[in-house]
Design goal:
homodimer, Carbamate kinase, VC0802-like, 2 domains, eight-stranded mixed β-sheet, six-stranded antiparallel β-sheet
Chain lengths: 407, 407
């Protein structure tokens, strides 16, 4: 008998029928003797409807009131799921974030969890009840409703699992696990049985969006075994664990992540004196433009070229900012390329294996794909290439590193 | 500068545009220097949608979860109204029932208010904020969400007005006040400037549904001046006050209430021994059938006829129950008439005026309307008549008592 925290996302509870399916699934786990805490999101579409009502009323809706509004979505789901459970004879009780209570700071629309009181939940579990908790929401010290921001329900689930010292936190989604890469690009992409927190972070932040990155960080920090699995099919999913608990011999490469719709901007001929990078990225950051890859290279003439990538939608704005910066810095100019993409190899195993980078570059060269930027970290290597070669590059790397076969 | 509690019902906040209108109205009151607490219902239609989702999942949804579900309706409205207010420069803050907090007992779906903490609200008012409170909901001592049952938002408004010792509680609806009778039946029906709590109770319970009866009782008990007015038109509405604060000389009759779709059931020849009434009405009450008028008359042969009226939809069920009761009691039989209606004269003035009843019977006789049952209380006289004469009777009485002219 284990204590399991399960999280079902918006698609999994998107209709009354699907809520009924989740109830059946939960009842099955109960029958196996597990204690269950179930975290749910708003039914898919509900949050968007609420947001559009808010936007009709106020251009930048009051963050406090936005949280009061949005939190109704999950509150609706918890009560409906409890009804579905009780209808099939499973005793259940719902809690809003505030009722648990999940104490957060007061950063409305992007609050951070500060503490979780587990007394109500423990008492209910002892009484044999399934506890259903509204994801994505909490309450600050003043009793104000807060929300955790995008993907916050995953974070709620992991935080509850950590607070309750649950045996496993299961995240049910519309995919059946984490894949070596996107199966829409590489049909023979393989579901991973296990992946480390660190690899998952790199995969998630690089565009293979299965789990909210914050929840993975949280799980890693508190060492909560996290499993991603499908709410529609049966299957073991992918277990995300700490490196120690991973396999004895890690695979060299776990997966290939990629990101489309990027723009590359380069500031050419920046004088090689301290403070230049700050002068370039300060104004970009002030304009709320998220920067992804940054590469700087000293040229022969004691000037630097600084290149970076951003989401394509921000490209024009960033270019306008850089035109000014170039004048201030006495740099030579700005180059913008709106047709790039990023491909990354991820794997904790690469730390102990030399030659991964050269094998990667070799595989790309064999397909005549030109590499524009390269960055590396301990467990990933990323390259920026012309976007039209993206699929070709991912497939070539998937084959070159033998990812379709289990290690 | 006064402290006013305003309540806007589901129709008044039924669309984004209407929420905007309410905000404009509230802003106008603020400009006049009033302190405002605004209570809102769920947008019209929302509650019904939630109920039908619940019914899809469970035949008799868990009352606790039903309250968790339904309370999201008002929570949505409070946040949207605050956004609409802030958008036009009015500082505002929303509170759910639990946040206020409005403490209730634990009778889910029909909870009673036990206490209201006013500290948050007073602090906000001091800060110059409009306070927007979710109607219809509260929280019990265990922190569970409760709802107050049908029309509970009116009760929330009156209870808040009582707790805050507000100068007036204004209930905005889709009618512009309380009328001498239904204007759809009598076109010259007149809006009353004032009416006493007692009269309003009789008017409301008799079918002139403007205000929830519980809120009127509450207002009467705590002597909260209550005003009913339209959220769509300007106008003074109708002020509901205690008798002492009413006019020096009360009008004899304030209004005519009526109720359609009634059935009359008579148990004939009930032996005249104690306990008979209980034996008749016990099983009716156990079947959750609401009884309206009850009349009992001793006949010449030491047996009673007991007649009563109920809503027509319950007629068949009640008749089946009575068939059994008749055998047990040794009564003669049951008569059912599914085509009756009730008409009532209401007025505190009738206490000090003789001859009202005979004037009423005379007016009906002049139209050849047969009276089937008569009941009287201190401030009302009700008759049950054949339903097809209902409109005729109401018009005749409206004229006979000169209600179209202000007193």
């Amino acid at each position: 008998m284990a204590l399991v925290v399960q999280k079902y996302g918006g698609t999994s509870v998107g209709t009354i029928d699907r809520i009924r399916n989740v109830a059946t699934k939960v009842a099955g786990f109960r029958e196996q003797g597990h204690d269950l805490v179930v975290v749910v999101s708003a039914m898919s579409g509900v949050t968007n409807n609420l947001v559009s009502m808010a936007n009709e009323l106020q251009k930048e809706p009051s963050p406090r009131e936005m949280d009061v509004l949005l939190s109704t979505g999950e509150q609706t789901t918890i009560s409906l799921l409890c009804m579905a459970l009780e209808n099939i004879g499973v005793s259940a009780r719902s809690y809003t974030g505030g009722q648990v209570k999940i104490l957060t700071d007061s950063a409305y629309t992007k609050a951070r969890i500060v503490n979780i009181e587990d007394s109500h939940i423990r008492e209910d579990l002892k009484q044999g009840r399934v506890v259903v908790v509204a994801g994505f929401q909490g309450m600050d010290e003043g009793g104000n409703i807060t929300t955790l921001g995008r993907g916050g329900s995953d974070t709620t689930a992991v935080a509850l699992a950590a607070a309750l010292k649950a045996d496993e936190c299961q995240i049910y989604t519309d995919v059946d696990g984490v894949y070596t890469t996107d199966p829409r690009v590489v049909p023979e992409a393989r579901r991973l049985d296990r992946i480390t927190f660190e690899e998952m972070l790199e995969m998630a932040s690089l565009g293979a969006k299965v789990l909210q990155i914050r929840s993975v960080e949280f799980a890693g920090k508190y060492n909560v075994p996290l499993r991603v699995l499908s709410s529609f099919d049966d299957g073991p999913g992918t277990l995300i664990v700490s490196e120690e608990e991973s396999m004895m011999e890690n695979p060299i490469i776990s997966g290939i992540a990629f990101k489309r719709d990027e723009s590359k901007l380069s500031v050419i001929g920046v004088p090689d004196v301290p403070g230049m990078a700050y002068k370039v990225f300060g104004p970009i950051s002030d304009a709320n433009i998220e920067v992804d890859v940054i590469v700087q290279n000293v040229g022969e003439d004691k000037t630097n070229d600084i290149s970076f990538t951003i989401q394509r939608k921000d490209s024009e704005k960033a270019a306008r900012i850089l035109e000014k910066v170039v004048k201030e810095l006495g740099a030579e100019g700005v180059e913008v390329d709106n047709h790039v993409a990023k491909v990354s190899l991820v794997g904790v195993g690469m730390r102990s294996h030399a030659g991964i980078a050269s094998r990667m570059f070799g595989a790309l060269a064999a397909e005549s794909i030109n590499i524009q930027l390269i960055t590396t970290s301990e467990i990933k290597i990323s390259v920026v290439i012309e976007e039209k070669y993206l699929e070709l590059a991912v497939r070539a790397l998937h084959t070159a590193f033998g990812l379709k076969d289990a290690p």
